[in-house]
Amino acid sequence: MAPNTNSVEITGLPSASSFDEQPEEVKKIASFLSRLSGDDRRAASGEIAALVKQAGLRAALSTGMLEKLKSLVEDKASAPSREGALLLIASLAEVAGPSAEPFLVSLMPSVFERIGDKVTPVRTAADAAATAVFTVLSADATKVVLPIIFDNLALSKNWMIKVAVLRLLRGLSVSAPSQIGKALPDIIPVLGDVFGDSKAQVVQATLDTFRAVLSIVGNKDIEPFIPALITAIQFPKEANECVHKLASTTFVQAVDAPTLAIMVPVLVRGLREGTTPVKRKCAVIIENMSKLVEIPSDATPFLPKLLPLLERASQEVADPECRSVASRAHATLLRVAGGRRDTTPDLEVSEEKIIEAHVQSALKSVVVADAAFAVTQDYICRLVKDAQLDFDLWNSRLVTPFLVGFMEQAVAEAVCRSLLAKVQGGEGSSSKAEEAAVEESGEVLCNCTFSLAYGAKILLNNTTMLLRRGHRYGLCGGNGTGKSTLMRAIANGQVEGFPSADVLKTVYVEHDLDASVADLPVLDFMTADEKMVGLEKAKIEATLLDIGFSKEMLTNPVASLSGGWKMKLALGRAMLMGADILLLDEPTNHLDVKNVAWLENYLQGLSEVTSMIVSHDSSFLDHVCTDIIHLDSRKLRQYKGNLSAFVEKHPEAKSYYDLAATPMKFSFPKPGFLEGIKSKDRAILKMQRVSFKYPNTERMIFENATIQVSLSSRVACVGPNGAGKSTLIKVLTGEVEPTEGLVWKHPNLRVAYVAQHAFHHVEEHLDMTPNQYIQWRYVVGEDREAMTKVTRQVSEEEEKKMAQVIMFQGTKRVVDQILGRRKLKNSYEYEVSWVGLGIEENCWVPREKLEDMGFEKLVNEVDAKEAAKAGLWTRPLTALAIQKHLDDFGLEAEFGTHSRIRGLSGGQKVKLVLAAAMWNNPHILVLDEPTNYLDRDSLGALALAIGGYEGGVVVITHNNEFSNSVCPEKWTVGDGKVVVTGATNMPGEKIEMKREDETTDAYGNTIKIKAPKKELSRKEQKAKERLKKLKAKNGEAVEEEEEW
Q1: Considering only CA atoms, which of 136, 118, 222, 197 is closest in space to residue 172?
Q2: What is the distance between the alpha carbons of residues 905 and 1031, in angstroms, rounded to a whole number?
Q3: Residue 543 and residue 572: Cα distance in Å, rounded?
Q4: What pLDDT does residue 350 have?
């Protein structure tokens, strides 16, 4: 053979004749093949397999065994021949070794066909043969056998064949998980089509296979999403719901081809069949996921599916905003594809063809080929054409194992090296890059690079986080930048490269406790925690006593604790767990000044524990932090020093110290008309000599409290944890009833109340968007949350009293309903219907008389409805109007209209609750701990909005900076008393409150509102009557209102 100038010459290779050894075994193989059709075919198959092992693969193939086997398997006339051949294939798989793999794989199409044979023994043998081959198959053979599997899942194939190949595919997910993961972009569409099969056995096998192949993705972010994905592929109607779940998924790891393969089918369905909001959400997800794709080729297989649908959405969807989002996603995806609209990977295909040509040429130049070797040659080419050019890989898995059937091991390795040298155009040895160790001062606990996304928003992209032992890191950034999401991802082990829990103990501290254990006593709650296993009860009790709990408090239920004590309980739990890293999310929320100081001292004393802290308390961060990590432009930027040092370097962050420096702006709605109020200092809500205690307790929370609120009020309610501040506000707003005393409010007053645990307002509506939540809350014509207040719920005792017979206008009657009201001098009178009497018997009864009769709550119900009507009827409850309102509170459309509440950050939820409470144009705004979760810019915007608000404000807060900037009046709650300071006795500002003179309907049309009829004086009324009589006498037309 002439030397090949393009390859490394190999000497000592065997000639064709050197393989013709052991002629006796070869002759026996040839003679035994004829016995495969006889009655002793099972014995014959075992003997032939033993002879092949003894003679060697090359010698066995020289008998034409491969062609004979294929012919027998496909022999439709002889079932024994088919069975015998299949038995031999199974036996060969067990004994022939890796070099027989190319030949066994080449027989698989014929073997699969026989699984659907009409003859049961043949079907059984075929199934056994396929199982035997796939059991010994190398992991790298997956790319070769998958096309064969896909062909046998076609609609025309027998259902038994489909069930069998699906089982084999599940087996590959165990034996070759890496290869199956890479092939998911090809596997998922095929399996999705098989879901439409009419046979239940096939559908169940497909479902099992889906679960198996998707379980190996290895992306922790996507694992919880897998069941929803499978459901959406199996049942297309579920695709919309699946998109919403995907949009609420936190993505930390890089997005690769397997992850995209899982998401794309749902996104395609959403773009093709979903509603406009779903299409928009799909486009946003695609745009943001594209930014997390580190290897552009990972996205290439999906471009033909996504680009046309995005282009169609950008041109055909009716909503212009959705078209804009789809167009932006289309452009981003094109950029990922390198600007190519034709998504055929020509470059990669050409490179694979070049490699394949090199291998084919090299094999011919170093090996004496024949027909048998051609099968192996083709098989090797298919394995190496897209593999790394690494000698160890080629020698151990892709080339040498299949050559040893034709030559000695040393020669096969030489051939492998020659092949690689030809493909590389140089030496075949591989080299590995050495990584230089970086010396760092101090112990590094974590140094990782990762990305983080939450559904439709990229939060961090390819950023690095470095944490050292004993440092205290302040995590700073605006609402929605990913502070809490990052800490939760760390706690859940989702951050790529972050040390595992068995290496580094990380504890996430939050004050929201599981409602299912709220009734447990405090000490029992701690001992029942599975993370406290192994700790003595005495040690737990001692720790809680050290941080301020009394023995009495340890026996009280967790639900009885105030917000501040719940946070201290969470901190005590973290202390007992012995963490290496403490993740503190708003640790000063609900803590009074004394407990904040205690927390500062505790954290400063942890020399061996690292802390990562999210807090909007600038003073706390200044006292505690050794480093600042700033979330900026999707990166973590780290700075030495505390918050002051950070602001000094970055003056644009001065809003951390000056609330008025915020670039954000909130805009509160005007309170609207309030009948009879001519001065801003006139009381419109007040308590007189009110006392309160909880049922079944003896301790009075407060006694003889007298306070009042006007339109000019700016009140801060302050006091230590557990003093009763929130309870005072609940009594004032009607959330609970007083034990003693009087609570009065103006009949037309509207109060917006945001509770201490603000999330409770929305926790039952997490799958709504903020826009939908506000629609739900006010669609009945008033605030649904106000309808649940205790002061509007009629007790059983009150019902009995109202059902009593009363004497009215000389007759015995029973009240049925109170239907409406009208003005009566300085009060109101109410229309009352009676049980058993018609509408003509309805009467107007003064308010005072109804209250004396025990109908105060029904009267309040009518007042509330009238007040709500006055506040709502000028505002159309449309998506557009609601989003404009949400914009005024810093909640842009992406989160206000197009994201579910479940996916909002804590600060965004607070903004939603605040906006929802103020939709009905309230006269009084009551905020219980509003500074919790709001970032500094939002806090500054809130302070400025309160300053410009035309209604009254009452705030509970431990944030002195915030309260001092907005509230001159203080209500100090403690020791059972409420002390009022800072209240002004100066004459109030005179105001002229006018009724609204126009409104906007659902279509955006402006409608003029008719003013109420002017009340005429007696003289004017007589003149009007004379004019009417004169017109009637002269035969002139008298208008209807004149007749009235």
Answers
A1: 136
A2: 69
A3: 7
A4: 45
State the Cα–Cα distance between residues 243 and 285, nearest whole angstrom. Answer: 9
Residues 371 and 65: their CA atoms lie apart, in Å, by 12
Whether the pLDDT of residue 473 is over 90: the answer is yes
Start-to-end Cα distance in the chain: 122
* pLDDT attached to residue 767: 85
Buried b or exposed e, range 1019-1041, using 16+ CB within 10 angstroms = eeeeeeeeeeeeeeeeeeeeeee
Residue with tokens 């309170």: 671
Cβ-based neighbours of 99, under 8 Å, separated by 6 or more: 57, 376, 401, 402, 403, 404, 405, 406
What's the pTM value of the predicted model, to 2 decimals?
0.53
Collapsing DSSP to helix, strand or coil, 786 comes out as helix
134 CB-contact burial (10 Å; exposed 0-12 / middle 13-18 / buried 19+): buried
d(CA 715, CA 971): 7
Q: Give 684: exposed, middle or buried? Use CB within 10 Å, 0-12, 13-18, 19+.
A: buried
Which letter does DSSP use for residue 667 in this model?
-
| Residue 588 CB contacts under 8 Å (≥ 6 apart), including other chains | 596, 599, 615, 617, 620, 958
Alpha-carbon distance of 480 to 493, in angstroms, equals 21
Give the whole-angstrom CA distance, residue 144 versus residue 545. Answer: 67
Q: Report the distance separating Cα 591 and Cα 599, nearest Å.
A: 9
Three-state secondary-structure class, residue 49: helix
Residue 901 contacts residue 766 (beta carbons within 8 Å): yes
3-state secondary structure of 446: strand
User: Cα–Cα distance between 60 and 49 in angstroms, integer?
Assistant: 10
Q: Is 433 exposed, middle or buried (0-12, 13-18, 19+ CB in 10 A)?
A: exposed
What pLDDT does 1005 receive?
Answer: 57
* 116/124 Cα distance (integer angstroms): 10
User: Around 867, how many Cα atoms within 13 Å sit in the side-chain half-sphere?
Assistant: 25
Beta bridge partners of 448: 465
Residue with tokens 């300071």: 981
> How many residues are there in the chain?
1044
Q: H/E/C letters for each residue in 588-644?
A: CCCCCHHHHHHHHHHHHCCCCCEEEEECCCHHHHHHHCCEEEEEECCEEEEEECCHH
Q: What percent of the chain has pLDDT over 70?
A: 81
Return the structure tokens found at 211. 């679960």
**CB of 953 within 8 A of CB of 782?**
no
Q: State the DSSP code for 55.
A: H
User: Which of these, 755, 735, 750, 679, lies nearest to 930 by C-alpha position?
Assistant: 755
Name, of 13-17, 112-116, 543-547, the range with top average pLDDT: 112-116
Two tokens at 212?
């198996």
| pLDDT digits 0-9 by tens, 864-902 | 777 777 766 567 888 888 999 999 998 888 888 888 888
**How is residue 926 annotated by DSSP?**
E
CA-based nearest residue to 754, from 607, 505, 892, 924 = 924
R_g of the chain, CA atoms, integer Å: 40
- List, for residues 25-80, the tens digit of each pLDDT value: 666 776 677 777 777 888 887 887 887 777 777 777 777 777 888 888 888 888 88
Q: Of 128, 180, 124, 177, nearest to 149 (Cα)?
A: 180
Cα maximum dimension of the chain: 140
One-letter amino acid at 861 equals E
d(CA 450, CA 1031): 88
Cα three-residue angle 942-945-946, rounded to 5 degrees: 85
**Residue 699, phi then psi, degrees to nearest 5:** -75, 130
Look at strands 751-754 and 924-928 and give their pairing.
Answer: parallel
